[in-house]
Amino acid sequence: MLFKVVDEFSKPKTSNLEKMASAYSSIISHVGEDVNRQGLLKTPERAAKAMLFFTKGYEQQLDDILNEAVFDEDHDEMVIVKDIEMFSLCEHHLVPFNGRVHIGYLPNKKVLGLSKLARIVEMFSRRLQVQERLTKQIATAMVQAVQPAGVAVVIEASHMCMVMRGVQKINATTSTSCMLGVFRDDPKTREEFLNLINKK
Length: 200
Prior knowledge:
Blueprint: H1 17-30, H2 43-54, H3 62-66, E1 70-72, E2 79-90, E3 96-106, E4 110-112, H4 114-125, E5 128-129, H5 131-146, E6 150-159, H6 160-163, E7 174-181, H7 182-185, H8 187-198
Parallel strand pairs: 2-5
Antiparallel strand pairs: 1-4, 2-3, 3-6, 6-7
Helix pairs in contact: 1-2, 4-5
EC number: 3.5.4.16
Protein name: GTP cyclohydrolase 1
GO molecular function: GTP binding; GTP cyclohydrolase I activity; zinc ion binding
């Protein structure tokens, strides 16, 4: 294995819907609303269920996601899956950020089922995140999965913490990248990847 990945953020989560709903009820009350009015009666429970869905990635493990979809294949050319839709929650403000993920890797006698790349994105994005860490987690998970000659991950996202509050810049986007192995060491390989993901 060329790199080692340690998923320190993957911890089993006990779903305590009642306690989470109570916490949401308190928040709603403290912003000045009446939690007993008709439109809000079931909101705390709905919000708790939604938060559990938004963070379901904590209950997933890479081995379960891969489900043995790693195949021996004598293919040594670049594999790219781009424009993978991504939704996550900013860990600083608990508001969404969303965008697109582009993943490329150079196989080393093993390939990964294409849908698994999207599932890896889903597992790590369905957690409280920062975009920089999310980018690296996806890349290192790919290394763990197939031990490729290299991995490249680029994420382009819009953060609601910059749109709905703070500087309120609705057109601002954030781009992050993680290049490992040959994508970091060889400028031509990196350039080929970047050209391909930007090709319309």
